[in-house]
Every structure is written in C-alpha cells, then in structure tokens.
Design brief:
By secondary structure, the chain is an alpha/beta fold. It folds into two domains: 2-110 and 270-305, Quinone Oxidoreductase, Chain A, domain 1 (Alpha-Beta Complex), CATH 3.90.180; 118-251, NAD(P)-binding Rossmann-like Domain (Rossmann fold). It has ten helices and 15 strands. Strands 3, 4, 5, 6, 7, 14 and 15 form a seven-stranded mixed sheet that branches. A six-stranded parallel sheet has the order 10-9-8-11-12-13, sandwiched between helices. A two-stranded antiparallel ribbon has the order 1-2. Strand 1 and strand 2 (11-16) form a beta hairpin. The longest helix has 14 residues, at 112-125. The chain is globular. The structure holds zinc ion.
Length: 309
C-alpha cells in the first residue's frame, strides 16, 4: 500500500509499505479522505511536535477487524483520529474510531475531526446564545468555531482575517461582519459594535501575537479568550489589561466528537463547505502542503484521497 512518510521540514514522500493486519483491539480502515490540518502544515514548515499528529483527520470504511473487536462491523463508515493516516489503509485502536451515520457524506465525515476541536473549545467556554463573539482568523479553525456558534444559536459573530477569500467564506457561512485587521483596528471596531463594552468571548484561531493581542484587547471586563491557534513564535502581550479586565484565558487542543455530531444533526450547519480541494495521495506535497504554504488564493481545507475523489 501507499503511505506518506514525514522525514523533516518540507521533506515528505509517498512510499510503498506492506499492508498489515489489525492487531488486538484495532480495526483496519480503507481511507476515503484524510484532511490536511493546520498542525500538519505547522510540522511540515517548522518541524515535528513532541507527539506528532501528522495526518490524523481521516474517514473511511472498515475492511478488517482485529481480535476482540465486537462493536464494529466490516463495511461500516467511520472517522478515525490517529497519526499516519496519509495512507491507503490504517490500523486504528477502537478508542480512536468514531462511528458516523451510514448516510453521511464523505466530505462531511472528513471534517468531523476539526469540527470536534471547535466543539471541545466551545463546550469549555460555555458560550450562551445572546453573547457577542470575536473570532480572530477565518481559516479552518475559525470557520469551525463559527459553525459551532451558529449551531448553538449565537447571533453576533465578528471575524477578522487578512485574506479576502477567507472573509468571503466566513460571510457565506453566517458571520455577522468581517474585516481586514490591517485596515480596521479590531479592538476599536469591537468597542464600536458593542457600545464600548467589548465582546463576551474572543477566539484566537491563527496562532500569532497580533491576533492574540486583538482578542485580549477586545473582550469585556470578565470576558474569556479561547486560544486554539498553533503558535510557532513566542507572543509578547501586555498583561496590565489582562489583569485589570479580569480576563480568563483558556487554551484548547482536544476534541469532542459527540457534540460535533450533535451540531451536525441540528441540520443548521454544513461543515464540508470549508473543503476547497481534493487531491490524490501522490500529489500531497505539490498540490497540498506547498499550496497551503504558499500564496493560495482559494484554499482552506484540502483533503487527500488515496483511492480518488
Ligand atoms: Zn486536525
């Protein structure tokens, strides 16, 4: 079978590897799609994480059961969250396999994991429908948070991003208002929109100092800042405002698939709309990582399809 090996910065390749039977407590999945995550791009450009999650947003069909597996059947559609899934097949322990409805669209299944990250973050934040929210960043992380807020019934959702096409996507998916933070100062705009008060909650969905500062300076007294962006550099922030405004800052990096599936069931959101391209496994470097690393003018979520779209 074919699979992608990560060797180091900007160094990945597709190799032939033997197909292995699933071990005890594992299922073997024939992968339909594996999405390229922001964390994958981060590793591609800056080097591996201590526990590399490279290639973890997969969905596919179960083709073999390991010993002791009783609650899955062959042919069942699932999502799996295990590194190494830029491949034709993956053996995955059952605790990292998620059952999805049999009629779920594959593109939708492919984004259940990123949506689950938003679900975990918003569950931790305990947002209420009447609150106002700033999301700094309109990439996959920001857009998934937006969809989660829509599913929760939140109405005032403001978003910032440097790129026009990403802001357009945010508006299409139901953002209240978006702007370019280089043209409009985010904290000033937020004060204007909230009668001088600030938003109840701000979500950092980029992973850079500028957006973290925008979030910290845009929340109300006693407000919450959720940090979900992956930071490469240190961020220097002025802590006086943080203290005097009694801000709560929460970092999140886990998933809540049950809540994500419940959001999808409401019928209010179509998370697959963040998918902008589907590429063959062989083209993962040129049409996937290098495109995302460069100046793409349209891409948000790219899916890798080992057996074709
Ligand atoms: Zn991910």
């Amino acid at each position: 079978m074919k699979k992608v090996v990560y060797r180091g910065i900007r160094d990945i390749s597709v190799v032939d590897a033997p197909e292995v039977n699933p071990g005890r407590g594992e299922v073997k999945i024939k992968i339909k799609y594996c999405g390229i995550c922001g964390s994958d791009l981060h590793e591609y450009l800056h080097g591996p994480f201590p526990e590399s999650p490279f290639g973890h947003e997969a969905c596919g069909e179960i083709v073999a059961l390991g010993e002791g597996v009783t609650d899955f059947i062959i042919g069942e559609r699932v999502c799996s969250v295990i590194p190494g899934s830029f491949a034709e097949f993956i053996n995955c322990p059952v605790e990292r396999v998620l059952k999805i409805p049999a009629d779920m669209d594959w593109k939708r299944a492919a984004v259940v994991e990123p949506l689950s990250g938003a679900a975990y973050a918003l569950d931790k934040a305990q947002i209420k429908g009447n609150e106002a929210v700033l999301i700094a960043g309109c990439g996959t992380v920001g857009l998934m948070i937006l969809l989660g807020l829509k599913a929760t019934g939140v109405k005032n959702i403001y978003m910032s991003d440097l790129l026009d096409y990403r802001r357009d996507k945010a508006m299409q998916l139901g953002a209240t208002l978006t702007w370019n933070p280089l043209e409009i100062k985010t904290s000033t705009k937020i004060k204007e929109l909230t009668g001088g008060k600030g938003v109840d909650m701000a979500i950092e969905a980029v992973g850079i100092e500028a957006t973290l500062k925008d979030c910290l300076s845009s929340v109300k007294f006693g407000g919450k800042v959720i940090v979900q962006g992956i930071f490469t550099e240190r961020a220097l922030v002025h802590m006086l405002g943080f203290v005097t405004r009694e801000t709560t800052m929460i970092g999140t990096n886990s998933i809540n698939p049950q809540l994500a599936l419940a959001w999808i069931e409401t019928g209010k959101i179509q998370p697959e709309r963040v998918v902008t391209n589907i590429i063959p496994l062989e083209k993962i470097k040129e049409e996937g990582f290098e495109v995302l690393a460069g100046k793409s003018t349209k891409d948000i979520k790219i899916l890798v399809a080992p057996f074709g779209a």
